[in-house]
Amino acid sequence: MKYISTRGKAPACNFEQVLLTGLAPDGGLYVPESLPRFSESEIASWAGLPYDQLAFRVIKPFIDGEIPDDVLQRILSESYQTFTHKAVAPLRQLDANEWVLELYCGPTLAFKDFALQLLGRLLDYVLTRDNKKVAVLGATSGDTGSAALEGCRHCENIDLFILHPYQRVSEVQRRQMTTIAGDNVHNIAVRGNFDDCQRIVKAAFGDQSFLPSDRQLVAVNSINWARIMAQIVYYFYASLNLGGPLRPVSFSVPTGNFGDIYAGYLARSMGLPVNQLIIATNRNDILHRLISDNEYSLGSLEHTLSPSMDIMVSSNFERYLFDLFDRDAEAVTEFVTGLGHTPQKLKPDQWLRARELFSSLGVDDDTTCKVIGQVYADTEFLIDPHTAIGVHAARVCNKDSSVPMVTLATAHPVKFADAVEKAGLQYPDLPEHLQDLLERDERYDVLDNDITAVTDFMQSRL
Ligand SMILES: Cc1ncc(COP(=O)(O)O)c(C=O)c1O
Ligand SMILES: N[C@@H](CCOP(=O)(O)O)C(=O)O
């Protein structure tokens, strides 16, 4: 399997090369040159498989023999053993044909654990085998950071640098990162927002001259292909548990960096019958504005009750545009780089194709809290604000109530006290392994919103 850049000016890579990087050298994102496709009968034969074994079948073609099958199987089994629910990704029914897929049973209580438990182990395997050291650099709006630290911190060959926007993540999210001990763990609060953190990360990938000569940067954000690859699996899992592939399923996906819904788009492209894919955003609704009005323009990034989705520049949208523009890398580059200066528009046929595939909705904080309250009143099930946005969008955008509608429940409500309390509900207890989280010592540095401040800091710690 070869991976190529969406900007068309970087050499093609194999799996291990994309695993050990982030952005391509031309600033683009890596995508498979061609996608594996599974037949209906092959997908049907996977019904009833445990999560890790299903993951093996979905992921194997992307790794293409570069990691021996028995090693991959062991790594997958260990990755999903860390989850507290035996089903790994249990489905919960909200109404007649309405479901949520609980993706927060991993160690850090958000869907990021699905990919980062795996990514950490894959990196550990490759780096130990090759006796190589790397610096992991990631930006987080709250959840990727702790999942990356939890997934990678045991690897002696990795130094971890995680940027979060200062005072813009919830207290539980911040403490999940800043209370992790270890000389290889470096938390940086940037005086800016998530887009600033992500911009700094991308700039650092573009010029790695600040690193010691024996080091390279590796991404833990969804710009790293391995993140997306792991997230494809739970679309197959949900579908197989709801009668797929013999009947289609629809998904509503709380969306920020467009990684999760892009994984759903790929599952569909690989042969999974998916009816609707709904982009559910908060007030930072650039993607909703594009789908509904063909207006792709930056606004000011707002702080909302769903802070993990306070994102304006959605990295992975570029991967989808690459397909939408029939893999015309120049057109992608022009569209994506143009966004910084002027609003962009899709051509009418492109916009139509995007709207045929995606529905969308932007949801404000008041509605988010109302939905948390409503779902709790109807089912005694407490959902987090990101999931609430997904549930609301699922209800508003559903085009066919005979098709099962699954909202991805992307995080545990215990991470978001503000939203739970504003919804008028009792804040749940922290799970056992985080019981003393609020008493643990924190360790982080606050830096200016400036690339050099961050790269100088990294240089001083490596
Ligand atoms: C809880 C939660 N929900 C939804 C999202 C959005 O996912 P994506 O960035 O893949 O669109 C995020 C952040 O990525 C998140 O942390
Ligand atoms: N919501 C994320 C933001 C980063 O997204 P990623 O999927 O690209 O890592 C977070 O919580 O950190």
How many beta-strand runs?
13
End-to-end separation in angstroms reads 33 Å
Biggest β-sheet description: 6 strands, mixed
* Ligand types: pyridoxal-5'-phosphate, ligand LJ64HWYM
* General form: globular
Low-confidence stretches: none
Any idea what the CATH architecture of the domain at 87-110 and 225-422 is?
A: 3-Layer(aba) Sandwich
At CATH level 3, the topology of the domain at 87-110 and 225-422 is Rossmann fold
Structural class estimated from helices and strands: alpha/beta
Tell me the radius of gyration: 20 Å
Helix run count: 18
CATH C-level of the domain at 87-110 and 225-422: Alpha Beta
Helix content range of the residues, please?
Answer: 40-55%
Strand order of the largest sheet: 3-4-12-9-10-11
- Portion in strands: 5-15%
On the 0 to 100 scale, the average pLDDT is 97
Could you characterize what this model shows?
It is built from 18 helices and 13 strands. The chain has a domain of 222 residues: Rossmann fold (3-Layer(aba) Sandwich), CATH 3.40.50.1100. The chain has a 6-stranded mixed beta sheet, with helices on both faces. It has a 5-stranded parallel beta sheet with strand order 8-5-6-7-13, with helices on both faces. The protein has a two-stranded antiparallel ribbon with strand order 1-2. The mean pLDDT is 97. With 462 residues, the chain is an alpha/beta fold. The two termini are 33 Å apart. The structure holds pyridoxal-5'-phosphate and ligand LJ64HWYM. The site of the ligand N[C@@H](CCOP(=O)(O)O)C(=O)O has 13 residues, from helix 6.
